[in-house]
Design a protein that fits this description.
With 282 residues, the protein is α/β, with parallel strands linked by helices. It is built from 8 helices and 15 strands. 27% of the residues lie in helices and 33% in strands. The strands form 3 sheets. The chain has a 6-stranded mixed β-sheet, with helices on both faces. A 5-stranded mixed β-sheet has the order 8-7-9-6-10, with helices on one face. A 4-stranded antiparallel β-sheet has the order 13-14-12-15. Its cofactor is Mg(2+).
Length: 282
């Protein structure tokens, strides 16, 4: 069986489980379950702390896993990302009191508090900065107020929490993270079970981004219409019983669907319909 690590809690857990369910895999009904066997799909799921997943996958104990890019890099584990999943996006940045520093080059001799000590240590080394790193679990905003550090490094969404603590974001982002599928760096590239899993997950990503659009249009306007709806390869065009009309079917980006429908209508298309895509293979 393919052995897959899945986050058991936190911001990664629910979206990961939802995506796996859309991909046709069984998911646990009880949060206390630590292992779930999906015999029909020949997969065994292990529900683990998100921070531990890269370690298990990197050691070869598990074949692949779902975790955050930030957690992967912070672990230092010999694992690599093989697919971006498009959820749990975040930005990792430095912050401090106004006037303390302008960018990472000013951090020499200072102390930085963070929950991602491995990631920050590597970033400082990459920039040739000699600074101390203090590892703290959980929120780090109070580290400066309590005199533990002059700088903090943390996940930033809107920056409101930092501003409320009297801090400002400085320098360029350390990292832009999101949920990713990972495997051990020494794992074979041609494992058929892993390839099948990736195809399923990619199918979910595509199904979420596209809708199927159907419409009828006069033959003389087909070229202009299909220019609006080119599809992934090319649209399906079928003659209708009513002479001079054809039916067109094509995948279009869901974010553009309403605009495309308006433009098709102005072009003379009628019976314009959109339907959701639940699964696909490309």
């Amino acid at each position: 069986m393919l052995r897959i690590a899945v986050p058991n809690k936190g911001s990664l857990s629910e979206p990961a489980s939802a995506m796996l369910h859309e991909a046709g895999y069984r998911q646990r009904k009880d949060r206390r379950e630590l292992v779930l066997v999906d015999a029909e799909n020949e997969v065994e799921f292990f529900f683990l702390r998100p921070r531990d997943i890269a370690v298990y996958v990197g050691s070869g104990k598990l074949d692949i896993g779902i975790t955050g890019r930030d957690l992967l890099l912070d672990s230092g584990s010999p694992a690599e990302e093989i697919l971006q999943l498009g959820f749990a996006s975040s930005t990792f940045r430095y912050a401090t009191r106004p006037g303390t520093a302008k960018d990472v080059g000013d951090f020499g001799g200072m102390t930085i508090a963070t929950s991602f000590s491995g990631l920050v240590t590597q970033h400082l080394a990459d920039n040739g900065v000699d600074a101390s790193v203090v590892h703290l679990d959980g929120a780090v905003e109070t580290a400066i107020q309590l005199g533990v550090a002059e700088i903090i490094a943390d996940v930033v969404e809107t920056g409101t929490t930092l501003r409320n603590a009297g801090l400002e974001i400085i320098g360029e982002p350390i990292l832009k993270s999101e949920a990713v599928v990972i495997r051990g760096t020494g794992a074979p590239d041609d494992d058929p079970k892993v390839r099948q899993f990736l195809r399923r997950m990619q199918g979910v990503l595509v199904a979420r981004r596209y809708v199927m659009m159907d419409y009828d249009i006069r033959v003389e306007h087909v070229e202009k219409a299909v220019a609006l709806t080119p599809g992934l390869e090319s649209p399906t065009v079928s003659p209708l019983h009513h002479e001079g009309w054809v039916a067109v079917r094509s995948m279009v980006p869901s974010k553009d669907a309403q605009r495309i429908m308006d433009e098709l209508y102005d072009l003379g298309a009628r019976a314009i319909l959109t339907t959701g895509i639940h699964a696909c293979r490309l």
